[in-house]
Design a protein that fits this description.
Blueprint (H helix, E strand, L loop, with lengths): L1 H12 L7 E3 L9 E5 L7 E2 L2 E2 L11 E4 L4 E7 L2 E4 L25 E3 L13 E3 L5 E3 L2 E2 L2 H4 L7 E5 L4 E5 L4 E4 L2
Parallel strand pairs: 1-2, 2-10, 4-5, 8-9, 11-12
Antiparallel strand pairs: 3-12, 5-6, 6-7, 12-13, 13-14
Length: 175
């Protein structure tokens, strides 16, 4: 899975995208979607591992915080909201070994209108103000994602909830 993410990310970083994108699906479900994942595989979305949140100020940023092994999102420029709840998280950080250097300017912007002019900081930025991302849909991800990685998100189609994996346990969110 990590290999696929690296290959796809490397390809996407070389181009500026202006479209609606479907991954593992032939098309997006409707015009309100920027990025949609197919629901025919038992896989989740792996968030970036971050060791230092200093300087991250973009509301709506979602990441896996390696300092306390929690999935978090930025509610406002000063408040990180914990989506993991359980504090027993763990992660194999060897996938971020010292042979890989972060490219501070690396960014993929998906937009139907921005045309590469969006200045929002981030690895993957969905720039349309009227479109959203649809998470991978998995029936009972805690049972069907065989080897989940810390920082994984999926939509549980059975419980109809957001499923968040912190490296040890799944947490489920329902409004």
């Amino acid at each position: 899975m990590i290999k696929n993410i690296i290959v796809i990310s490397s390809f996407l970083m070389t181009v500026s995208l202006q479209a609606q994108i479907g991954i593992s699906t032939e098309s997006v479900s409707n015009g309100s979607v920027s990025l949609e994942f197919g629901n025919n595989e038992n896989k989740g979305l792996l968030l970036p591992y971050v060791t230092d949140k200093t300087g991250i100020t973009e509301n709506g940023t979602v990441l896996f915080d390696t300092t306390d092994h929690k999935v978090k999102y930025l509610k406002d420029t000063n408040t990180w909201f914990d989506l993991s709840i359980d504090s027993s998280g763990t992660a194999d950080l060897s996938i971020q070994d010292t042979d890989r250097e972060e490219q501070p300017g690396a960014k993929v912007c998906i937009s139907t209108t921005a045309g590469g002019t969006d200045t929002t900081k981030g690895i993957l930025v969905l720039a349309d103000a009227d479109k959203a991302m649809i998470l991978p849909k998995v029936a009972s991800p805690h049972l069907n994602i065989i080897n989940p990685s810390a920082g994984m998100l999926a939509y549980d189609t059975v419980k109809k909830q957001l499923a968040v994996y912190n490296g040890t346990v799944w947490t489920f969110w329902k409004p």
